[in-house]
Amino acid sequence: MTQSLKGRSVVVTGGSKGIGKGISRVFALSGAKVAIIARHLDQAEAAAAEIGHGAFGVVGDVTSLASIESAFGTVAGRNGGIDVLCANAGIFPQARLEDMTSKQWDEVVDTNLKGTFHAVKAVVPYLKRSDQGRIVLTSSITGPVTGFPGWSHYGATKAGQLGFMRTACIELAKYGITVNAVMPGNIITEGLVGLGDDYQKTMAASVPLKRLGTVEDIGYAALYFASKEAGYVTGQTIIVDGGQILPESLEALA
Length: 254
Ligand SMILES: NC(=O)c1ccc[n+]([C@@H]2O[C@H](COP(=O)([O-])OP(=O)(O)OC[C@H]3O[C@@H](n4cnc5c(N)ncnc54)[C@H](OP(=O)(O)O)[C@@H]3O)[C@@H](O)[C@H]2O)c1
What we know:
Helices cover 43% and strands 14% of the residues. The protein is an alpha/beta fold. It is globular and about 55 Å long. NADP nicotinamide-adenine-dinucleotide phosphate (NAP) binds at residues 13-14, 16-20, 37-40, 43, 60-63, 88-92, 111, 115, 138, 140, 184, 186-187, 189-191.
């Protein structure tokens, strides 16, 4: 595993639960100084305490540029700067197109897409001063590659993140900052565990590797993009889904 995250200042938006917590854990175990951002400070602090290795929680809401600027200011003050942003905060409420309200659409876009823009914009001044400036987005297979009923708004934001990335990485290249994205498949998080074993088994059956992903599976992919070794990789995506998008039909899985 790369040693290049040792002592680096890393912020993870949405790091208090699920994939963000997995990313935070993997980076902390790699020696990074990890700051976990979430709207609920108590949950961010609880996740940081569980992870240990000097991780700490900071309150921040990616839907507000001022809130996220303030959070990053706190992190930079405490860690002496910021080297890596994992822009991971996201929501996925389901609503079928015919029932979806404009407000529901806006909520998902404001968090997932505008929130990505806010986090990236707010971190650039810090990354410009780093010699290992890295931005890693958490996108999804849903939207860029696949679809799922109830997630037209969500899928649009996850595909939108990749469109955003492809211009952001060009604009930020002059500072040596890279921007890449991880595209998770179905990952076991606290929310999914609550849906029960049968649900998980059905989901796993559609995956060639016959299991759902772990949050650490995503963390290791993010770690690669953030590493010194990935310094010449920008504007790229990696799908981490156990092969889920590949079968042409159910027969292909038999
Ligand atoms: N789980 C999957 O299978 C899967 C698959 C593909 C992609 N993803 C992507 O992975 C990311 C994380 O998903 P997850 O399943 O791990 O979600 P999760 O378990 O629900 O956790 C979401 C995290 O985001 C934070 N958050 C939500 N809204 C926020 C806001 N406005 N500002 C700051 N933080 C906010 C939450 O904390 P607070 O509520 O305290 O703010 C929490 O820490 C999302 O971008 C999602 O699209 C997930």
